[in-house]
Amino acid sequence: MAFHFSLFENLFVEPKSKEEMVLIEEDGESFEDALTDEQMREKALNQANDAKDEGNKLFCAGKYDDALSQYEIALQIAFEVQSSEEISSMCHANRAICFSKLGKYDETIKECTKALELNPPYLKALLRRAEAHEKLEHYEEAIADIKKVIELEPSNDQARKSLQHLEPLAAEKREKMKEEMIEKLKEMGNSVLGRFGMSVDNFKAVKDPNTGSYSYLISTLITYSSPGTIKKTKRKKKGKYL
Question: How far apart are the C-alpha atoms of 169 and 124, rounded to whole Å?
């Protein structure tokens, strides 16, 4: 025992000056401060997890508004802690599904986006955002999210089935938007041609099979805008032609 005491005694070098003593004391204080910070961080993370777990219980009980409040508390605690991206992204994703249950799909999308900003490859957040986009008939956006899921996890059957379901809906919506645009252009055409007692109703829209675009109003306006045609139409009202 005496040998060991002597060995450790030889390893300790007494400070040669007051300055060295101060440095040793400061190093000790820094170690204690660092340890205290780590303990505080762990405590804060535990509190954030407790709030999240309470939110999960409330969610399972169908108390979605109360669950939202608990997840918000967890986020506020985690915000003050470094390296808390994981729990924060989970809380945002959980808030997203609460909003989805409440039918607030715009808020669902916002929360999922926040979760993905913290954790880009978060599959659940991508799937939930895609579902919310589908509810709002944002089919193109939903498809983009689903394709990202498949990119990250090619074996995800749920995502592949969703893609097969969404693509026809997106195509149908694009076609509907084109038809609505045609109607608006038709109204504009009628407002101009109406000055000459004409209408585009007797003309049929021609769809380009290659591009899917229509040439309806262009051909109609050219037909009616020639001076000869306008003159002929006017003369017809009088019952004779030149």
Answer: 22
